[in-house]
Amino acid sequence: MSRLDSPILEPRVVDTGILVAVVALLATGVASMFAATPATAWVYVLHGTTGVLFLALVVLKLWRVRHRVRVRPSGVWTSLLLAALSVAALATGFGWVFGLELDVGFWGLLNVHIAFGLLVAPVVLFHLRRRFAVASRETLTQRRTVLRSGGLLVGGAVAWRAQQSLNRLLDTAGADRRFTGSRPAEGDSGNDFPVTMWMADDPDPIDTDSWTLSVGGLTERSLSVGADELDPDSEQRALLDCTSGWYAERDWQGLSVGDLLDAVEPHEDAAWVQFRSVTGYRWTLPIDEARDALLATHVDGQRLSHGHGYPLRLVAPDRRGYQWVKWVESVEVSRSRDLSESIAIFVSGL
Ligand code: HEM
Ligand code: HEM
Ligand SMILES: Nc1nc2c(c(=O)[nH]1)N[C@H]1C(S)=C(S)[C@@H](COP(=O)(O)O)O[C@H]1N2
Ligand SMILES: [Mo]
Question: Gene3D superfamilies, alphabetically (predicted)?
């Protein structure tokens, strides 16, 4: 390979770098779906920094292979598809950060970004099946390689930081993102914020004459509470942050889950608490975290609207929005975690 074709880093080093970057982007991207507290902000910093690095490496790579594409070696269509998906993931990622507005059906830009990002994974595997070649240990530890990749990494971090400042300076629609990347939702109090269903959930308004909340499982006794017995005696300010990229902070009023658990007395070996919706949608919290959660009947003093989960919705302050189960009808204590819930959130309501 001539000097000209590898202006900064050797081809094998570029490809190895791309491989590491893609793995890191997928890992931090998926991890971001679970990262809701400031202590996990590094997941987003790493994703953004790696994103900038990936951009630089992909530019070097595509420049290098531009002549190959023209002679169409076998497997080139996979490579071109991969290039298209990579560019699309980069464009939607940076577009989101700079406040670009784009809606594809009921999907916003961030969901489109996640879709492109996830699609990169299988296609890169197909590309690797024919093209897998990484730099030798010798090349990777060469002074030149170490200095230049180190420089690229630092450059990536600096560029990522500068980009966030530039965003604020230009006062784009992306400027007031939280560390999760979410922007403030339209609407400023009570029920006035977006109604979001993860996939297919769309129950009819709950008939409160037949609805009851049941609390039980691995407990001394169980409890059944009718809608007219719900006494909102607990309040919490908490921020709902949807992975589709919006957030809303509100005062929520309702039942303390800790009080409910005290009433049913969980057994010694109880470790998890599952909140289940009338639709089958459900999520589980470790019992200590569940104690601090709230089952809300009201938001900012207004009775919850149907769309927001009336008569009861989970408020889980340290969790992403999709875990705030709406239309809750059961609270169940158990010893082990129910893994089917991660499938249920996709198929409930179908
Ligand atoms: C995820 C981003 C990637 C994109 C967009 C990409 C794109 C391309 C394109 C367009 C070509 C030229 C057409 C062809 O030969 O089929 C190519 C070739 C190649 N790619 Fe990739 N690729 C990526 C990742 C990787 C990775 C992770 C590796 C290996 C670790 C790799 C190794 C190669 C090799 C060995 C070739 C043959 C050409 C050469 O040796 O210079 N690629 N790639
Ligand atoms: C190869 C795949 C991917 C690439 C190249 C990529 C690239 C990017 C880039 C360049 C940004 C802008 C970051 C910044 O400059 O601050 C970004 C943001 C983001 N990405 Fe990805 N990404 C990929 C996969 C994913 C996946 C799989 C997910 C989730 C499952 C994801 C979730 C996010 C989120 C939530 C943001 C917004 C963060 C913020 O606003 O600061 N990404 N991505
Ligand atoms: N039963 C049920 N609960 C659910 C959902 C759902 O689809 N079904 N969507 C979740 C998602 S993705 C989010 S972001 C929040 C949105 O709450 P909101 O519609 O009150 O804004 O509810 C969560 N709770
Ligand atoms: Mo969400």
Answer: Oxidoreductase, molybdopterin-binding domain
